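Allow me, if you will, to draw on your knowledge of protein folds for a short while. I have a record of one protein: its chain in single-letter code and its fold written as C-alpha cells. Could you please explain, in whatever detail you think fit, how the C-alpha cells follow from the sequence? The record follows directly beneath this note:
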Amino acid sequence: QVQLVESGGGLVQAGGSLRLSCAASRIAFRTNVMGWYRQAPGKQRELVASINSGGSSNYADSVKGRFTISRDNAKNTVYLQMNSLKPEDKAVYYCNLRYTVTSQGYWGQGTQVTVSS
C-alpha cells in the first residue's frame, strides 16, 4: 500500500510563498503521476497541478504562473512551490499518486494552507 506523507503547509500573508512536499513510499510502479489537489470548505476537491514520472506537468488555470510542481524520482517526492499566494488559495492540499498502468490512485492525509489578506 502506497503511503504519502505531506508537509509544508501553514499560514502566510497574501503575496507570500509556501513550498509543499509529499514523500511517497511503497511504490509498486515507477510509471506514475503525482499531483496536488485542494479542497476549500464547501467546495469540491480540484486539481492544482500534476507531473508524470517523465516530468511533464499541467496546472489549473487559476495557479498558472504562480505555482510550480516538480518531482525528485530518486526520492519519490513531489513538491509544489506556491508563490504570490492569494486568499482564494486557502484550502486543504492533498497529495495524490496514480499508477498509469492500473489507474489506481492514493491520497495523502492533507495539509492546510491558509492565506491571510
